[in-house]
Amino acid sequence: MNYWLIKSEPSEFGLADLERQGSEPWTGVRNYQARNYMRDQMRIGDLALFYHSSVTVPGVVGIAQVGSAPYPDPTQFDPKSDYYDAKSTLEAPRWQLVDMHFVERFVCEVPLEELKGDPFFADMLVVKPGMRLSIQPVSAPHFLEIRARGRRL
DNA sequence: GCCAACGTTGGC
DNA sequence: GCCAACGTTGGC
Description:
Elements lengths: L2 E6 L1 H4 L1 H7 L1 E3 L6 H10 L5 E6 L6 E8 L4 E2 L23 E2 L1 E13 H5 L18 E4 L1 H12 L2
The structure holds a DNA duplex (12 and 12 nucleotides).
């Protein structure tokens, strides 16, 4: 079992949207490293911290789960999509994604600020300045601690 | 809306 | 294959 952190902007697609949909193809990732994580390392059942960015209080708001094997991101072939990639072909698609399933919404969101202020999370990627990667691997201890904090009342 | 950090592009 | 220019991300 691998653990992950996936970022989203709630104005685009937030945890509430995933909860409503139940499952969602994780479209629009256009960074090779993030793609490689989805394509090469994610497994069905892997759990991911669901992170909200570009909001007043950025942080982890819940949990999602990898729900499919990797497959080509359909938005790369759609000229009307923001994520259209003219250089990608059906024969050799550039961008792969997985489906994400809703698992839980935290009763208590875990803000980025809290992680930054805690030495336990010092080597977590998301606290590093300038870290923009939208899909990041997370260690089991970090995942479990954040989930425990998210569930506290 | 500023801006630092970072990834990508394309000319050479 | 170098690297400057450019675009994007995302916290602040």
